[in-house]
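step=encode ok
step=design start
structure_in=
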């Protein structure tokens, strides 16, 4: 069973949100759709082609090592820097790392330019991202009534306030487990919660005894063959008594807690903090508030109620950050509550942003990857290599599978040649238009002619630059 989502904090009627619908619909195909993980064997070595990843073995192994460090969760403050030419899979590597982490460990991707905003301070954006990347797993033992609903009868009464309409005076709920059954007479507010969860007879639910929150676990598997087609999750009949103590696990991030507490009417205990998560409305999250939350979190960790789950913060195109951000990062990385940070950059030696106008400096401070040397010194640097023709061909093949495109081997060879001559991205981008061309021509397989035709229609960077240079030279002649 997945952890119950946070409850809303209306006094008296704490209602759990309905779980997000599980859809099996195919999602849109994006640039990195074929990447499913790092593709490492059990001993940590990178397989030549696995989980959508091709080649780039040493970088993948380095990330795998970082991942095992991360899974131990004991070390912090060792940022990883991915460097390499454009299109060599730095972003893809970080995405694969995020996928390896699983659902419960936070992964916060950020592009450095997102830091610049007219409304929010740069360091504020960074620190909220840092906190988004640190999870907290809260374990709680709660008294609950759990079972399959056998009866759901609301009792109506005359509305005492007006002559019109009726109100619910109470609701009778019958719950059944393997061991026994129980009939509960419940407050109308619990009936509201039951309605919100869309509970019907035959569902397995649990009701928290002290808050009245209702959570629908799924449909009892006794009803499994009811329909031919449906998207229902079937669960077995709960074991044990209807009334029991149950361990519940909730995953939140420190940022969630910050946001919940930025609201003025936040309560003191952690559950009321959690209770407000889904409500909107935003006031400023100050440093003081963060410190307070850290204190509460520390206390809960000490008591063994909660566990810190450091996740990954991924900052892409890190050369876009400026000097102030880098200085902030130096400090933030050393704090004990720091997530694992992964940077990526495709720049060589360039000017550090924010130092251009330092009067005497002229062009500013130049540094490798546009990162100050002191931060660079703290990083573990991983290099990505340009791809060989064969690797490009395998990536193209993987992509064809994801996009369900049928390409003739000769056409694939030609695409791989194009990729080698210009870039992997260019070759990947030609795939979909090629599929359209061949469909229009009434064929099912992309041929060499399709690829050649596309070569005339779409220019790659080199040819486009060449044309510009020619134009420039021609203009200078006259
Ligand atoms: N080793 C690989 N295996 C499979 N696909 C890859 C691999 N490397 C890159 N790709 C794919 O190639 C494309 C370009 O890669 P990516 O965007 O990761 O490059 P990058 O290094 O981040 O480039 P930039 O520096 O321009 O941001 C993406 O669609 C990516 O999924
Ligand atoms: Mg990238």
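sequence_out=
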């Amino acid at each position: 069973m997945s952890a119950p989502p946070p409850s809303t904090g209306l006094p008296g009627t704490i209602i759990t949100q309905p779980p997000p619908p599980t859809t099996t619909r195919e999602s849109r195909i994006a640039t990195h759709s074929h990447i499913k993980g790092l593709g490492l064997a059990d001993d940590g070595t990178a397989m030549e082609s696995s989980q959508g990843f091709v080649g780039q073995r040493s970088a993948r192994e380095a990330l795998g090592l970082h991942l095992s460090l991360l899974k131990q969760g004991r070390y912090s403050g060792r940022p990883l820097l991915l460097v390499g030419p454009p299109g060599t899979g730095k972003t893809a590597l970080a995405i694969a790392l995020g996928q390896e982490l699983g659902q419960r460990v936070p992964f916060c991707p950020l592009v450095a330019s997102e830091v610049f905003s007219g409304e929010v301070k740069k360091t504020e954006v960074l620190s909220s991202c840092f906190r988004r990347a640190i999870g907290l797993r809260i374990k709680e033992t709660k008294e609950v009534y759990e079972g399959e609903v056998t009866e759901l009868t609301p009792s109506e009464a005359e509305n005492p306030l007006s002559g019109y309409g009726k109100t619910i005076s109470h609701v009778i709920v019958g719950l059944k487990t393997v061991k026994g059954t129980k009939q509960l007479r419940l407050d109308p507010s619990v009936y509201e919660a039951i309605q919100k969860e869309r509970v019907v007879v035959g569902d397995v639910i649990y009701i928290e005894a002290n808050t009245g929150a209702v959570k629908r676990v799924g449909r009892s598997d006794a009803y499994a063959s009811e329909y031919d087609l449906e998207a229902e999750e079937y669960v077995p009949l709960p074991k044990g008594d209807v009334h029991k103590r149950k361990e519940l696990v909730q995953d939140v991030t420190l940022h969630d807690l910050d946001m919940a507490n930025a609201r003025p009417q936040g309560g003191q205990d952690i559950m009321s903090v959690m209770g407000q998560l889904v409500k909107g409305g935003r006031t400023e999250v100050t440093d003081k508030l963060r410190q307070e939350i850290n204190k509460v979190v520390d206390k809960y960790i000490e008591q063994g109620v909660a566990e810190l789950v450091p996740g990954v913060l991924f900052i892409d195109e890190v050369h876009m950050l400026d000097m102030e951000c880098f200085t902030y990062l130096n400090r933030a990385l050393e704090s004990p509550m720091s997530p694992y940070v992964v940077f990526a950059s495709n720049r060589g030696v360039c000017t550090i942003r924010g130092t251009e106008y330092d009067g005497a400096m002229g062009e500013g401070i130049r540094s490798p990857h546009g990162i100050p040397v002191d931060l660079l010194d703290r990083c573990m640097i991983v290099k990505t290599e340009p791809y060989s023709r064969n690797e490009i061909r395998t990536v193209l093949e993987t992509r064809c599978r994801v996009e369900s495109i049928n390409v003739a081997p000769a056409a694939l060879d030609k695409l791989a040649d194009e990729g080698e001559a210009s870039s992997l991205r260019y070759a990947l981008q030609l795939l979909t238009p090629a599929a359209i061309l061949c469909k229009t021509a009434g064929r099912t397989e992309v041929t060499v002619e399709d690829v050649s035709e596309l070569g005339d229609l779409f220019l790659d960077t080199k040819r486009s630059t060449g044309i510009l240079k020619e134009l420039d030279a021609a203009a200078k002649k006259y």
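step=design ok
step=annotate ok -> The longest strand covers residues 134-158.
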